[in-house]
User: What shape does this take?
Amino acid sequence: MDKKGEYTRCDECGSKFLKSSSKMMALCPECSHILYGYPNCDHVFKNGKCIYCHWDGSRSDYIKRLLNDDET
Assistant: This one.
């Protein structure tokens, strides 16, 4: 885990996340995975946030539409 605890907000979903957990500076691991195929975090949630990347489970309307299209 990043000892400095540098966080930022995802430009897509708005969730706060640990910068060191994502390959993209402006996207959380979840959004960078869905949009660009980057590796995702192996999320483990505790108290509403992933203990590894701190993503809070947020999804933008665009991501929700993409995921719904993939399921049909």
Summary: The first strand starts at residue 7 and ends at 9. Strands lie at 7-9, 16-18, 45-46, 49-50. The CA atoms of residues 31 and 61 lie 12 Å apart.
